[in-house]
């Protein structure tokens, strides 16, 4: 009887164990659903209501739910009391955390503590191209340097970040492209009245005018003196042939570096885990190059943690999301640290969990600001904040949105820079981001990134990557990476493309890549070596862009030329040279420095603008955009060409009054050799500029007949800078004074080989005009002779790894030139030298001391080894001899390669490099195309090879002609796709 009464009094209790199992299963299913909010759903099998008792392990009373998952009314009061108690507990904990000191910046402790790691994670399965690691490279090292060696670089053009991947502390290095010292703002600081002084106490307008920032230019009243100094140097060169750089007359050409400034650090975002884990399992951090998303995952006990990072170009915001497999598991502290605490101008604010950080740079009062919003998910969590930090405890997920900027703006009529407060702009960006859905923002970012990244494919037959990247580098260094070594080569190409996407987007400044992410480079001193180096670095950053489908990333470089270099460069041309047009010298900044600097040996390169204009011309060739050429590229080229029409000189050569060719004078070979006339690099650059401009004139229909006539005359008379010297070398100077033992890193005299193409289109005959009676000394060297001379010079110049001149760009340039010369063995030797000196010791493949140009350049060189488009109408596929064996052990492909007429070329090859198919999409232009195929050879080499050309998707055979290893498509039609099949 008692038993029956007890049962009737609690009619559902006898089924409690079974229902608890159902609860456990449903909870597990729910918690591991993506973006779950932790809601518990119980789906009953019966239609009638029933009650389910679940014992909360933290309290003795049972919690009751109906089959909709909601608590019954009899327990609402109990639930409310429990929630209130939990909230009070979390609030107290928040208050305690807020009272603790902030972490120092730069940090005094490692980024990733020496935690025990167990159950090593396997390789990611979601991407082909990635950097991934099972643990931090060396947690015992000082963390500021460690993040530069091992952190992930992400960016959206204007903002770049370095993500460390720490567990207890995630330090995110913040960088912004316009965080620069120097410039016109220096005047505001220098002339700001001190305490007790007013503006009237200044010494007058003359003194202020004398201190004005001019981008390296002299005041107008000193222009005649500078032009006289220039003429004296020209005359000295005429008399002596060469003038030493240290002579006083050369020193008179040096410029003013005051106000040049340098890029300075911005600050850090710190995300600290409140819970301290004793052991983590399956730790893995990954940068997916295909999505532009960095991910950190690990497990603690039964809970799996995941953190995602990306910087969105469409939304102009960077994002970090923290999730866990169980609800209420995310508990963090978030804070911002400025890199400019010493200025005394830093202000920290917090409005509704939106932290702000403002400061002014010491040298110029430029405003810098960053803000981060902590968006929480989960009704049971608690967050409290003060002006420096937000503490969020017990949430299901947290998303951090952060953005940064400065007051740098170019407004109105040049050169009026304005320190425009960035606050409203950043607030607008943040409001939009916080008002959106994370899933939508993630997909928008990925779609935008992949639109660019997926435009080019490369398959070297590499095996599937299983080794973590740091282990892959160590194995490659030992020489036992096997087929994964081939993966590393292909990875470097795609990584270079990824970095360009992250660092150079429409609306941003061009990629500098020198001190942008260095927390230690924060002096704010005038240091041109950390600015835009335009005697190789800046240009090399973009070598990979056009041919691999990233032409859009070149836009910031064109904008920089138009908006900054041209206006100031016109002043430089007028003041220093008394000439029209524009020019710039080899160092510049965001304040448009175009005058010479005071750097020894590298302060003077007046042909810098000619080199930059090659990128504008290439942008037209690859895009075939007439309006871009007419409205932008041609204007840049015409101005630069006008300068040289006015300033090229021609000295009398003999007693009879004969006159030699037009020369650049004075002229430097970058970095060494003294001052001469007509150094090879200068002559080659000006020749190429004038030639390109003449071609552009035909397209745009130039009406300025006098300019066209003068340009044509100059082009006919200019020395091309291609001479063969006494020991068979391609001369670096007009004088035959090359030292065969010289190992200087710069290859300016080989510009006509790569990235130029002038040397390949020289006359192949033994005489320039076919006159057999012409004096032997007056004959121009043939193309074959020049190519052989270039090889001889490059062999003597070495691999660019001399002591004291160990630059990544030097090896990359050598790799590209050897590829253009058709020598795969020496090209790959240069690639291996680059890896040895700049890759193997850097787990993230980034040598920040050297900058990014080396990696971007070596990526371009490896593409050049496989496929080339030297000029419109030409494409060479696997024509480089002696390609690395490991690249040809399996079949491979290149897809999405662009030619200089905008054609899109893809090719597949078999083991050993035998090309079986080439596909040409004539997407932008009709005309002829010569397709040179390395494995095709002449009739004597491959007599049985059968070539067939057809339209894709059609049985129609297309007429073609064959010239040994070249398939000539005489009349491709815009919009058609041509398929070249080759059978034995």
UniProtKB/TrEMBL annotation:
Protein name: Alpha-L-fucosidase
PANTHER family: ALPHA-FUCOSIDASE A (PTHR31084:SF3), ALPHA-L-FUCOSIDASE 2 (PTHR31084)
One BP term from GO: carbohydrate metabolic process
Organism of derivation: Linnemannia schmuckeri
Region (Disordered): 177-229, 763-783
Domain of life: Eukaryota
Cited InterPro entries: 6-hairpin_glycosidase_sf, 6hp_glycosidase-like_sf, GH95_cat, GH95_N_dom
Sequence ranges of Acidic residues compositional bias: 770-779
């Amino acid at each position: 009887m008692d038993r029956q009464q007890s049962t009737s009094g609690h009619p559902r209790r006898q089924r409690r164990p079974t229902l608890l199992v159902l609860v456990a299963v449903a909870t597990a299913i729910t918690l591991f659903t993506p973006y779950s909010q932790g809601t518990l759903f119980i789906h009953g099998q019966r239609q009638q209501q029933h009650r389910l008792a679940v014992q909360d392990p933290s309290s003795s009373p049972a919690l009751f739910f109906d089959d909709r998952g909601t608590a019954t009314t009899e327990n609402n009061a109990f639930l409310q009391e429990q929630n209130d108690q939990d909230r009070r507990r979390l609030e107290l904990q928040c208050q305690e955390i807020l009272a603790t000191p902030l972490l120092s910046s730069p940090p005094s402790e490692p980024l990733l503590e020496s935690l025990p790691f167990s159950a090593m994670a396997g390789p990611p399965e979601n991407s082909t191209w990635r950097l991934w690691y099972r643990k931090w490279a060396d947690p015992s090292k000082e963390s500021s340097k460690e993040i530069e060696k091992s952190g992930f670089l992400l960016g959206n053009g204007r903002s770049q970040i370095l993500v460390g991947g720490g567990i207890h502390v995630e330090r995110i290095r913040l960088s912004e492209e316009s965080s620069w010292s120097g410039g016109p703002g220096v005047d505001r600081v220098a002339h700001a009245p001190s305490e007790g002084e007013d503006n009237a106490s200044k010494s007058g307008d003359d003194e202020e005018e004398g201190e004005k920032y001019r981008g390296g230019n002299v005041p107008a009243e000193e222009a005649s003196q500078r032009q006289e100094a220039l003429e004296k140097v020209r005359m000295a060169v005429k008399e002596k042939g060469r003038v030493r750089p240290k002579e006083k007359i050369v020193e008179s050409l040096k410029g003013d570096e005051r106000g040049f400034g340098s890029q300075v650090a911005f600050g850090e975002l710190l995300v600290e885990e409140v819970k301290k884990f004793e052991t983590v399992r399956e730790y893995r951090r990954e940068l997916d190059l295909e999505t532009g998303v960095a991910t950190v995952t690990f497990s603690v006990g039964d809970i799996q943690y995941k953190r995602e990072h990306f910087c969105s170009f469409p939304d102009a915001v960077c994002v970090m999301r923290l999730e866990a497999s169980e609800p209420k598991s995310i508990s963090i502290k978030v804070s911002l640290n400025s890199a400019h605490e010493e200025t005394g101008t830093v202000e920290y604010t917090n409005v509704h969990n939106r932290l702000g950080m403002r400061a002014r740079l010491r040298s110029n009062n430029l405003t810098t600001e960053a803000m981060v919003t902590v968006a929480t998910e989960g009704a049971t969590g608690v967050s409290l904040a003060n002006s420096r930090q937000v503490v969020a405890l017990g949430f299901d997920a947290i998303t951090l949105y952060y953005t940064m900027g400065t007051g740098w703006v170019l407004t109105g009529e040049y050169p009026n820079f304005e320190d425009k407060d960035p606050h409203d702009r950043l607030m607008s960006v943040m409001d939009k981001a916080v008002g959106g859905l994370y899933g939508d923002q993630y997909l928008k970012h990925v779609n935008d990134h992949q639109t660019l990244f997926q435009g080019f494919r490369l398959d070297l037959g590499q095996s599937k990557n299983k080794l973590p990247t740091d282990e892959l580098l160590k194995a490659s260094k030992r020489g036992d990476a096997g087929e994964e070594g081939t993966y590393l080569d292909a990875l470097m190409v795609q990584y270079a493309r990824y970095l360009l996407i992250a660092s150079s987007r429409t609306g941003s400044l061009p990629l500098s890549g020198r001190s942008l992410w260095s927390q230690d480079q924060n002096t704010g001193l005038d240091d041109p070596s950390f600015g835009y180096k335009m005697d190789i670095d800046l240009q090399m950053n973009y070598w990979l862009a056009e041919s691999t489908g990233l032409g859009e990333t070149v836009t910031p470089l064109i904008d920089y030329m138009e908006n900054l270099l041209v206006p100031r460069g016109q002043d430089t041309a007028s003041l220093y040279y008394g000439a029209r047009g524009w020019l710039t010298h080899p160092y510049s900044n965001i304040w448009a420095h175009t005058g010479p600097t005071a750097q020894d040996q590298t302060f003077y390169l007046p042909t810098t603008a000619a080199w930059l204009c090659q990128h504008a011309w290439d942008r037209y060739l690859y895009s075939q955009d007439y309006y871009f050429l007419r409205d932008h590229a041609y204007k840049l080229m015409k101005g630069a060409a006008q300068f040289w029409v006015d300033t090229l000189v021609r000295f009398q050569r003999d007693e009879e009054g004969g006159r030699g060719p037009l020369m650049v004078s004075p002229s430097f070979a970058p970095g060494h050799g003294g001052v001469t006339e007509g150094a090879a690099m200068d002559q080659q650059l000006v020749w190429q500029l004038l030639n390109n401009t003449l071609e552009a004139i035909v397209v745009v229909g130039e009406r300025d007949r006098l300019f066209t006539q003068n340009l044509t005359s100059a082009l006919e008379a200019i020395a091309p800078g291609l001479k063969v010297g006494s020991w068979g070398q391609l001369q670096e100077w007009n004088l035959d004074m090359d030292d065969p033992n010289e190992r200087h890193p710069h290859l300016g005299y080989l510009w006509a080989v790569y990235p130029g193409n002038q040397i390949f289109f020289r006359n192949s005959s033994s005489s320039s005009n076919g006159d057999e009676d012409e004096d032997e000394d007056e004959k121009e060297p043939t193309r074959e002779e020049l190519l052989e001379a270039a090889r001889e010079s490059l062999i003597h110049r070495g691999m660019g790894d001399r002591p004291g001149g160990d630059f990544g760009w030097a090896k990359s340039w050598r790799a590209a030139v050897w590829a253009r010369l058709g020598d795969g063995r020496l090209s790959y030797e240069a690639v291996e030298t680059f890896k040895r000196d700049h890759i193997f010791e850097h787990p993230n493949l980034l040598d920040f001391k050297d900058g990014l140009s080396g990696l971007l350049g070596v990526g371009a060189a490896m593409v050049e080894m496989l496929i080339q488009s030297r000029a419109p109408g030409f494409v060479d596929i696997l024509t480089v001899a002696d390609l690395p064996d490991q690249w040809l052990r399996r079949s491979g492909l290149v897809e999405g390669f662009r030619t200089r007429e905008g054609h899109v070329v893809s090719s597949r090859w078999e083991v050993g490099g035998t090309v079986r198919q080439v596909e040409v999409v004539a997407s932008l232009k009709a005309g002829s195309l010569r397709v040179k195929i390395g494995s095709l050879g002449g009739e004597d080499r491959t007599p049985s090879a059968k070539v067939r050309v057809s339209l894709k998707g059609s049985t129609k055979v297309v007429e073609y002609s064959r010239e040994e290893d070249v398939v000539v498509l005489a009349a491709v039609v815009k919009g058609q796709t041509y398929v070249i099949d080759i059978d034995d």
